[in-house]
Amino acid sequence: MILARTGNNELILGTVQSALGVGGLVGGLVLAAWGGPQRRIHGVLLGFIGSSLLGLTLMGLGQSVVVWSVAAFLMFFFSPFINGSNQALWQAKVSPDVQGRVFAARRLIAQVSGPLGMLIAGPLADQFLEPAMQGDVWLGALLAPIFGNGPGAGMAVLIVAAGLLGVTSGLVGYAIRAIREVDVLLPDHDASPV
Asked: Rounded CA gap, 183 and 126, in Å?
């Protein structure tokens, strides 16, 4: 999207990617210094909402290197909170004798979703959203005031949609008591004496 919107300006893309890395580093340092929220589920859900809203959604809405860089920073700033809190929850709730199998299955599911998302997102952006945003299609007419109608506008729509779905997922997590209170409702495993 950034290359499409900037005429393949690699310096701008590098700047945004650098902001992304710095955001992850700063988030990791803040998490290390603070230790994260006492109720780990808040780190997961609020981190997911923050990353999706302030990262992905802002990235798709942005049309300048400053906005993209801030969005990239914020997107990865929240990643250590999400990942650290998530891992802490799993380690506290899953008995050590089955953690290897449980974590392997969990990782497989997580890793399959990435390539699957790319298989869907690429054709969706290239064959539907990009042409729709640049043509006289109703979608382009409806969304052009927000996203523009030049190259990259269709990809921006897709990124904002992903961001809004992420925010919705986090809010749904808070709406479901079994998820919202997983720290309390699901007992920690009993640590075996060594």
From this structure: 42
Tokens for 126?
Answer: 């290239």
| Burial class for 140, CB neighbours closer than 10 Å (0-12, 13-18, 19+) | buried
Phi, psi of 6 (to 5 degrees): -115, 15
Given this model, what pLDDT does residue 177 score? 97
By the 8 A CB rule, do 3 and 150 touch?
no
pLDDT band for position 194 (cuts 50, 70, 90): very low
pTM here? 0.90
pLDDT tens column, 90-148: 999 999 999 999 999 999 998 998 899 999 999 999 999 999 998 778 888 899 999 99
Q: Give the separation between CA 170 and CA 161, rounded to whole angstroms.
A: 14
pLDDT at res. 129: 94
**Alpha helices (H) in 6-57, listed in sequence order:** 10-34, 40-50
Which residue type occupies 18? S
Instruction: Specify the amino acid at residue 158.
Output: L
Provide the 10 A C-beta neighbour count for residue 63.
Answer: 15
What does the domain layout of the chain look like in residue ranges?
2-185
Nearest CA to 84 among 32, 10, 130?
A: 32
- φ, ψ (nearest 5 deg) of residue 35: 95, -10
